[in-house]
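re: ur question from earlier - yeah i can do the single chain one, its not a big deal. heres the input i used so u can compare w yours
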Amino acid sequence: MNGKAIFLAVIVAVMSTAGVAGSEDNSTNAPQGTPAGTSYFEGAWSGEWDLGPSTKQDVTVTIGPLNQKGYHKTTYDYGFVTSATGGTIPPGSFVVYGKVQDGAFIAKWKNREGEKRTLTLEKSKENQVKARYDIEGPLTSIQRPYYNAILKRK
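and the output i got, formated as tokens:
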């Protein structure tokens, strides 16, 4: 009888350690030479937002490894720009958290005024992503509700 109980306990232990993988493969299309489980989006991506005629803003998005809660710490750095109305935006940086969903990296946050912002990165070519910055809330007459860019891996 003890032998059967021990055998059953071993079977249960083996089955419980096997676990179940999540529905999302975070390592999909990761660059060659990256550790298993690394997201394609991890690393630094740089480019510039096209803010309008002759107005560009440098941007660098640095995506860290997946944390215990399933999110990537993301640093968003932006450069100095003079707007079409003559106002200036000084360079800055902030940290948000994002995750890979349906093959895209998505980070969401609220600005100081409480308006929602979303950054989405989708693989375009090797070491290149299509970036989209969505703005929710009131817009000025010259603002667009979103901006697009091509970011390249640094």
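Confidence is low (pLDDT under 50) at residues 1-31. not sure if urs matches, ping me
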